[in-house]
Design a protein that fits this description.
This protein is α+β, with helices and mostly antiparallel strands. 72% of the residues lie in helices and 9% in strands. The protein has a single domain (8-244), classed as Arp2/3 complex 21 kDa subunit ARPC3. Strands 2-1-3-4 form a 4-stranded antiparallel β-sheet. The protein is globular, with a radius of gyration of 18 Å.
Length: 247
């Protein structure tokens, strides 16, 4: 569904998916002391909204839903940047998903499998190096510590690669463009937060952070978001086809 008008149905979907971005972002978080920010899986819902409904709804839900989550979780100094960065992320993903280039089926298959290798490799790298061992996790108001072994990320990476390779070779070879759209949008998110932390958060809020420390965290957040989004998007398209009908 790529609506270009704001009918009552589309406005309702905008409100619904803005709430979904907010709930998913605020329901799972890992505090990052170096930047006084947090890891979350809300990007998955920003990506999903943009892929389903296009750039305008993707931008609104991404910006508003994510900024509200910052306020709710107690990070008001990130809310203004989040509104702009996540809004732009949603817009770019939705816009790019409509600009799929024309390739032969075999080239789509090769590109999708190649991106699957890269995505799985990055997931394993960031998971092993930054998210293994004792990790403080918050699920809503409940906080606890979890020991995540490196083998978890190795197995998850292997499963992700197998899924993407199967999807690209046997089912939907242009899955690679879905991945590429979300990667570009995710890199905008990573770059936006780095620039905000490096140049603006100190002067605006008198907060000292280590901007470079957020890069691997946000890259990992982007990758996890894509890993969640790709199968979810394909499932929604297949099993909830009414979402693809703008009327």
């Amino acid at each position: 569904m790529k609506p270009t008008n704001f009918s009552p149905r589309n406005l309702a979907l905008m409100g619904l998916f803005t709430a979904l971005v907010f709930v998913v972002t605020s329901s799972f978080s890992i505090y990052v002391p170096a930047t006084r920010g947090f890891f979350n899986i809300g990007d998955s819902m920003v990506f999903l909204t943009a892929l389903l409904f296009g750039p305008l709804i993707g931008a609104f839900a991404g910006g508003v839903g994510s900024a509200l989550a910052d306020l709710w979780l107690g990070y008001p100094y990130y809310a203004p940047a989040t509104f702009v960065i996540k809004g732009f992320e949603g817009f770019i993903v939705g816009w790019l998903s409509n600009k799929k280039p024309t390739l032969s089926p075999i080239n789509w298959k090769i590109s999708t499998i190649t991106l699957g290798v890269i995505l799985a490799g990055l997931l394993g790298y960031f998971g092993i190096n930054y998210y293994s061992g004792e990790t403080a996790i918050a699920l809503g108001s409940i906080s606890f510590t979890l020991n995540i072994p490196a083998i978890f990320w190795i197995l998850l990476s292997a499963l992700i690669f197998i899924f993407i390779a199967w999807l690209g070779w046997k089912n939907e070879p242009d899955t690679g463009w879905t991945i590429m759209s979300t990667v570009i949008g995710g890199l905008i998110m990573v770059t936006g937060y780095y620039l905000y932390q490096f140049f603006l958060i100190g002067p605006l809020f008198q907060i000292q952070v280590v901007a470079i420390a957020e890069l691997p965290i946000n890259l990992g957040q982007m990758i996890v978001g894509i890993v969640i989004t790709v199968p979810l998007f394909k499932s929604v398209k297949r099993y909830l086809p009414f979402l693809n009908n703008p009327n």
